[in-house]
Amino acid sequence: MQIREQGKKIQLIRTHYIPEKKRTVGRVFATFDKSLNLIPEDISLKIGKEETEKLEKYLFDRKEKQTLEELKFNLLNISSTINKASKALTVKEVLDDFSLEKANLVYEEMAALVKALRKAGFNKPK
After folding, report:
1. Is residue 54 part of a domain?
2. In what order do the strands lie in the sheet with 2-6?
3. Which domain covers residue 9, as residue numbers?
C-alpha cells in the first residue's frame, strides 16, 4: 500500500500486476480527509493489520511534523506577538476585555518563558 497526499485528501493506493502489460498499475482504493489524524472506521475495515500499522505510523509522523513546524513558527514570530500585545495594552477598548486573571496568567507565562530561555542557553543580555 502506498500513501499519497493529494489536495485536501489522503489517498491509499494498491498496486496490481497486469499480465498483458507486464507491469504494475497503482489504483486508489480509499481516500479520506487530510485533516484527520485517525483512520476512519470504514477504511480500517478495508485494510489489513500491516497496512493499518503503516497508515497509523504515517499519520503519527505527519502530526509530529506539523507540531514541530507550528512550534518553530511560533518561536520565530514570538517577538512580533509580544510587540503587538504591548501595543494592545495601550488601547482602552482592548483593556476593557482584559481582566486581572488574564494579566496574572501573562505574568506566569512570561516567567516560564524566561526560565525556558535560560534553560535553552539564552541568558538575558546585559
Report:
1. yes
2. 2-6, 9-18, 23-33
3. 2-73
Beta pairing partners, 33: 9
For every one of its 126 residues, what pLDDT tens digit does the chain have, with 9 covering 90 and above? 999 999 999 999 999 999 998 999 999 999 999 999 899 999 988 898 999 999 999 999 999 999 999 999 999 999 999 999 999 999 998 888 899 999 999 999 999 999 999 999 999 888
How many domains, the chain? Answer: 2
84 and 107 in one domain? yes
Amino acid identity at 85 = A
Grid coordinates representing 89 are 495594552
Whether residue 52 is found in the same domain as residue 89: no
- Which residue bears the cell 489489513? 48
pTM of the model: 0.74
